[in-house]
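Field notebook, page 287. I keep forgetting to write these up properly, so this time I am using the form the group agreed on. The chain and the ligand, 3-methyl-2-oxobutanoic acid, are recorded exactly as supplied. Prediction of the bound pose follows.
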Amino acid sequence: MRKKITKSTLINMKRRGEKIAAITSYDFLSTKIIDESGVDLILVGDSLGMVILGYDNTLPVTMEEIIHHLKAVSRAKPGAMVAGDLPFMSYQASVEDAVRNAGRLVKDGGAESVKLEGGQQYVPVIEAILKASIPVLGHLGLTPQSLHQFGGYKVQGKDRASADRLFNDALCLERAGCFAIVLECIPWQLAKRITEAVSIPTIGIGAGPYCDGQVLVVNDMLGIHVHPLPRFVKKYEDMGSRIGKAVSAYVDDVKNGRFPEPEHSYSSGTGENDNPKELHEMGEDAG
Ligand code: KIV
């Protein structure tokens, strides 16, 4: 059994210069496998809307959907810290909504922390959630819930003014009490500047090598996807085509009577047709 990772573990990792490995997960079995690989932080991200539920973007994701998947992930009792994403419109309208919904992720879903997107303007929300004793993970840069505001999935913080705004946002999140900040799709120079300026870990996704840690969407890094992947994804496997090949072989076997074979079949045990070979042949005749 792994030692439980908490927000203090992650902050201490930054102090020691130890990199943090984070990944998304959405179900029980994958979480069991992922956790054994020694990952530090598991995020039940609203990316589940796109990679699990087939939405075009993360905006339609509901609290119920996040909680449903959070429950499955937390049932795996991972040693990694579990963060649950606050979906679009679960924290934007009021501080009360934010605290209530963050509480639901912890109480109903089993999250050990919550993540929300946004900078300085969300400081009151972050402070209120922290008052309810819920650790908060910040998220800056290409925050997908602001897709329409950005006019598409574009690298953020490329010019001096927007880089300075994001830098200031990071300082605000640190001051507000976030235990770490996800930096998504920003130039590596800006991510480095932020990482060096804050005492809490930065966890990059498309933010270069100088962050204190990295996060990837598990389906992307395993190669289970239908849309082209962003450049920042490193594909560690091509599971999509491997699954396709395996299922095609199964379909072919079924259609050509090669499956099930004797070892996949049960005998009644009466002695009459106990020979699995005979049983198999009988099955073929009957078919
Ligand atoms: O929703 C998500 O999975 C995320 C990560 C990609 C950081 O926000």
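OBSERVATIONS:
- Residues 24, 43, 45-47, 85, 182, 205, 215, 217 surround 3-methyl-2-oxobutanoic acid (CB under 6 Å).
- The two ends are 49 Å apart (CA to CA).
FOLLOW-UP: compare against the apo run.
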